[in-house]
Design a protein that fits this description.
Order of helices and strands: HHHHHHH
Low-confidence stretches: none
Distance between the termini: 21 Å
Largest sheet: none
Oligomer: single chain
Shape: elongated
Mean pLDDT: 87
Structural class: mainly alpha
Helix content: over 70%
Number of strands: 0
Radius of gyration: 19 Å
Length: 174
């Protein structure tokens, strides 16, 4: 069964917010991504937290006012995304707080030594060292067992988002 036009608009609003938040990091100074799967944990967690809060605070309350969306599968997908992401919120807040109060610091001596030994241009060497510094800082913020819990929480969020994309766009290739 195809979604009704009102459901497509609702799902499109969800996807628009997702793309908007995914493209705009909350924190300054994150190193550039080398490829799409090189996402910084700080950006990843805060992006999901922003989306969860926006969907929960604005999109879902507006949908409840429309009679046709009260029992809509599209609304239930957004609710499933929000519900699955509740555990993620505290970790997003925690890592954002850490970034604001005890951010990673670039080790100037390590940078100087690495630049001299690698033969790379200074900007490229700095980017590499900064990426590694941020990765290490992120590992210190969330232990491996917490990352596993976050991955498990994220699975149903991803499923809800994937189904929403398929229902709104018809794309099922990813």
């Amino acid at each position: 069964m195809d979604p009704a036009p009102v459901e497509v608009r609702f799902g499109s609003a969800f996807l628009t917010l997702s793309r908007e938040f995914d493209g705009t990091p909350v924190v300054d100074g994150l190193p550039p991504e080398q490829h799409p799967f090189d996402r910084r944990l700080v950006h990843h967690l805060t992006m999901h937290a922003r989306l969860i809060r926006e969907v929960q605070g604005r999109l879902l309350p507006a949908a409840s006012l429309r009679f046709r969306l009260r029992r809509s599968p599209m609304r239930r997908l957004a609710e499933a995304y929000v519900e699955a992401g509740q555990d993620l919120l505290k970790y997003a807040d925690r890592i954002l707080h850490a970034w604001e109060h005890t951010p990673p610091v670039l080790d100037a001596a390590w940078l100087e030594e690495y630049t001299a030994l690698s033969g790379l241009p200074a900007d490229e060497a700095r980017d590499r060292i900064w990426r590694e510094t941020v990765k290490e800082w992120e590992r210190e913020q969330l232990a491996d067992d917490l990352r596993t819990l976050l991955d498990e929480a994220e699975r149903p969020m991803s499923q809800a988002a994937t189904i929403t994309v398929a229902a709104v766009t018809g794309e099922t290739w990813y």
